[in-house]
Design a protein that fits this description.
This protein is mainly alpha-helical. The protein has a single domain, classed as Rhodopsin 7-helix transmembrane proteins (Rhopdopsin 7-helix transmembrane proteins, Up-down Bundle). About 80% of the residues lie in helices and about 0% in strands. The protein is built from 12 helices and no strands. The protein has helices spanning about 1-35, 40-65, 75-105, 110-115, 115-135, 135-140, 160, 165-205, 215-250, 255-280, 285-305, 325-329. α1 packs across α11 (about 285-305), α2 packs antiparallel against α3 and α3 (about 75-105) packs antiparallel against α9. The longest helix has about 40 residues, at about 165-205. Residues about 310-320 and about 320-329 have low confidence and may be disordered. InterPro entries: GPCR_Rhodpsn, GPCR_Rhodpsn_7TM.
Length: about 325
């Protein structure tokens, strides 16, 4: 019964993650086509990585509804490798987005010269290579796998197939450096924004402002707000899972395993749903593109329901009426 409930929650979560990220990815592709902004490629990559997280969860949903499953070792290793790789790609994409915003604030006059298409492509390729290396490390190094698990586990999970050394490496080398880098970037952006505000106040005190709006400071504050929200959601989503997993790895009997697997990990997966929702709520351009997509879809549905017929209205000509008596003549 509990397994079916977890499977149902995972199924709903996977559906929402895939749908939200696909919609945001389409909106971002339209924006990139219009503006050719290189920074949007990092946000698009984040949506792709989060959508992949949703697709990997679909496999886990099948496991939950197929228990007792008793999958073979290599099957579980490959499945969890894909799960870890997509989650690592999502976290690394968040770092790329934060670094891009930080660079735009720190060096605004050199940003477009530095952020070329080639450099963006190299960074994205490197990101996926690192994510794949993290996820498939147990496949490359079999020593990170548990080979003496007997009886075989009923389903695939981190702690049933991976050695504690690998789990500690992923947690300590992957999550905490990312969190510290997030905090450093945000603090540095706060410092830069404080300098900008001080300069604006000095100009206003000297009477040189001329009533011009401080667009630069407004842009900086929007970027800082976005990064702050990303950091907060990332921390709230993943920190409980990583701390509890480290405790479970070091001391297997000190923390309930089912709590980590059924609740805390779901919170971490929820971050892949929060990311597209945040961008659709806080980014005006993305919100406008989603509205246009919804309006276009509504128009197509109405046309289909009306069998493609056009009715008289503004900008259209009414069809001529033909009398039935004239047809008889």
């Amino acid at each position: 019964m509990a397994s079916s409930a977890v499977g149902a929650i995972l199924a709903v979560l996977a559906s929402l993650i895939i749908t939200a990220n696909v919609l945001v990815a389409i909106a971002l592709l339209r924006l990139i086509h219009k503006s050719d902004s290189k920074g949007l490629y990092f946000v698009l990559n984040l949506a792709v990585a989060d959508a992949m997280v949703g697709f990997t969860v679909v496999g886990l949903v099948i496991d939950e509804f197929s228990q007792p499953f008793y999958p073979p070792q290599i099957f579980c290793v490959l499945r969890m490798a894909f799960v870890i790789s997509s989650s690592a790609a999502s976290i690394l994409s968040l770092i790329m987005v934060a670094c891009d915003r930080h660079l735009a604030i720190r060096k605004p006059f050199h940003y477009f010269q530095m952020m070329t298409g080639l450099r963006v492509g190299v960074r994205l390729v490197g990101l996926w290579l690192v994510a794949a290396t993290i996820g498939f490390l147990p496949v490359l190094i079999p020593a990170f796998q548990k080979t003496s698990a007997f009886p075989r586990p009923e389903k695939c999970s981190f702690f049933s197939i991976f050695q504690p050394a690998y789990m500690l490496s992923v947690f300590c080398v992957g999550f905490f450096p990312a969190l510290f880098l997030f905090i450093y970037l945000y603090c540095d952006m706060l410092k830069i924004a404080a300098v900008h505000v001080r300069h604006i106040r000095e100009v206003e005190a000297a009477g040189l402002a001329g009533g011009c709006p401080p667009s630069r400071t407004t842009s900086d504050m929007k970027a800082m707000r976005t990064v702050a929200i990303l950091i907060g959601c990332f921390t709230l989503s993943w920190l409980p899972f990583f701390i509890a997993s480290i405790i479970q790895t070091v001391c297997p009997g000190c923390f309930p395993y089912k709590v980590i697997e059924h609740y805390l990990w779901l919170m971490g997966l929820g971050n892949s749903l929060l990311n597209p929702l945040l961008y659709s709520l806080w980014q005006k351009d993305v919100r406008q593109q989603l509205s246009q997509l919804a309006a276009g879809l509504k128009k197509k549905v109405l046309l289909r329901l009306g069998n493609g017929r056009r009715f008289p209205g503004r900008g259209t000509k009414s069809l001529p009426t033909v009398s039935c008596l004239r047809l008889q003549d």
